[in-house]
Structure formats: C-alpha cells, structure tokens
Amino acid sequence: MRRTASLVLLACAVCCAALSPLLRWYAFPRLARIPAGQYQEMVLEARNATLLDYGTMRAEKVPKITIVQTLKGDVAAAKKIGKTAGRPVVVWDGLSYVQGPDGRMVSKVPERYIFDAHTQDPVHATGEMVDGDPVTREGIEFKWPFLTRKRDYEYFDAQTRTTSPIHYEGTRTFRGLTVYYFEQTIPWTRVPMPRTMPVQGITPELVARTGTTRWYSTVRRFWVEPVTGAPVYGEEIHREELRGGTLLGGRAKVTAFAGHVKMREDYIAHTVALVKHNRILVLALTSYVPWGSLGLGLLLLALSLWLEARARHPRGPAPARTEEPAPVSA
Are 223 and 232 contacting, i.e. CB atoms less than 8 angstroms apart? Predict the structure, then answer.
C-alpha cells in the first residue's frame, strides 16, 4: 500500500511541476488579453487654462477646459483583422472631445487604434487612422504591455502622428500601488488643423489659405501599474499655438490652448480600483499559481520519497529467535 501511495504522489508531483511552466508560458499569453469589446471613458480637466476665442481671435483665461476621451472596441472588425493577422487583435475607436467652460465643442479628434490583444504591439491594417488621416503606428499608445519593465518605450503621439521615446523615470507609490513613472516631451511641432473646427463654416482648407499654421508641444506623464501595464493616472502640460498668416491680423502667434491637463478625481478612484482587481488576476497566472504549483509538486515529491523509503525498510518488532533443540544423549 505504501508503494502504491508513493507512486500516486509521485505522479501528482510531476503534474504539479509540469503545470507551473505551462501556466506561465502557455496559458498566460492566451488568457491575459484586452477584451475585444471593451468600452472605457476618461474625463480630464485643465483648470485656469488659456483658450482661444475664435470670434475675436484673442486668447482668454477660462476657469476650466474638459477633455473626454472614449475608447470603444469594435468586435466585428477585431475578428476580421485577427483572421488575417493570425493572432487575436483589438480594434479601438477612440474620440478625444474638448469642450470649453460653456460646454461648447472646442475640438474633436477621432482615431482607430489596432493592436495585439496580449502584447499591445500595433497591428497594421486598413482603417488605422487619426482624424481621418491614415497612419502606421509604431510603439504603444494608451496602454503599456503586461509585466511592464523598467525601461524606455516607444510611444505614439496622435497630434504629430509620430513615435518617440517615453522615458522611465523611476518607481513611485500611488494610492497604495507601486507604479512606474514615465515622461515624454514633444517639442514644438507643426501639426494639422483638426478636421472639425469650433466655428461653423471654418474648415482646415480655409485656414490653410490664410497661411496660418498650428503648432503643438506637450509634456506627457503617466503613472503605470507594471503588472497589468495600465496607467492609473496621467497628465499633460499641453500647449497649442496658431502662427503667422492673415488670420491673426499681423500677429506672429496666438495661444490656442494652454493648460495643465489632469485626470478627474472620480475617474482616478475608479481606475485604481479596477487595476487592483485585474492585478490579482494577472499575478495568479504569472506568480501565485505557478509558484504554488511548483511548491506543491516539491512537497508531494518529498512525501512520495519518504513513503518509498518506509516501504523498503519496514519498521516493526524483530522476529523472536528460535533456539535449536539440544541433542539427545543415550
């Protein structure tokens, strides 16, 4: 019976030991994925900001500018592109909607972002765009990879349609989470006019005929939870200017938008709670279950060897010695 139990325990130990790398290197890439149908919304605010009044073409101080960013997954498009690409992909239709203190639209920029569901690497396919302009992204956008590392990443900037490094600047603590802090600076760069302008009748083509150009600069900051790769907080020191042309009435430049854009508090709290929950799920696949399975396998192996040793060397009372009968003498 001991030898039978030893063999059973040995088989269980082998299964547990094999399960450990299987979960980490096979199950994790297939289970840890961004849902294709995910929908999320983020509200950011810039208080005491500067905003251009297109009626007077003068920059004014305003109490608040609100930016609503939405990301909506297109499941049908993801399945279609995934079959062609040979891997699971996510298609996000994003919209950055900026409104002034009176609630009126300042700008809205749509984009379509296609990426690998697990690695977050961009996947190039028809429809990838920013504000109607076809783009070929390089680097990440919106989200870092699972198990983010302490290094610089290539990050895509939708305004300039270019990719540049976003630098790892150290490890910090944010709302009880250990996070990696990343920062990217985009120098003054000429960028296209938004296709949707805040004034009825004014189009990018009409502005272009006046000779006026749009320039943009920002300092982008993210606090990223490394296990999930999700930013728990983000902000930008954002500046836009119109330069030259007859539209400015002889002035060299005018500020179109300038402000310190930050996530709204209620969205920070929601994001942190969501990331804490998802962090446990990712750790279960990459750490808790694999290491626990390996530890259980070693324990079962030790128990199996102990039972086998006992079976080979039984411990019990020694058999009684039988004395030989004495010879009978005549």
Answer: yes
Q: Which tens digits make up the pLDDT trace of 137-184?
A: 999 999 999 999 999 999 999 999 999 999 999 999 999 999 999 999
- Ranges of H-type helices in 136-252: 204-210
Q: What are phi and psi of 192, to 5 degrees?
A: -70, 155
SS3 state at 88: coil
Q: What are phi and psi of 224, to 5 degrees?
A: -110, 130
Longest dimension (CA), the chain: 149
Q: Is residue 181 within 8 Å of residue 172, measured between CB atoms?
A: yes
Question: Nearest 5°: CA angle at 109, between 108 and 114?
Answer: 145
Q: How is residue 139 annotated by DSSP? A: S
6 has a pLDDT exceeding 90:
no
Query: Confidence band (pLDDT; 50, 70, 90) for 18?
Result: confident
pTM summary value = 0.88
How far is it, in rounded angstroms, from Cα 15 to Cα 171?
Answer: 38
Distances (CA, A) of 109 to 67, 77, 295: 11, 20, 52
Count each helix (H run) and each strand (E run) in the chain, helices first. 6, 12
Provide φ and ψ at 33, rounded to 5°. -140, 150
Amino acid of residue 228: T
Residue 2: name the closest of 297, 317, 310 by CA: 310
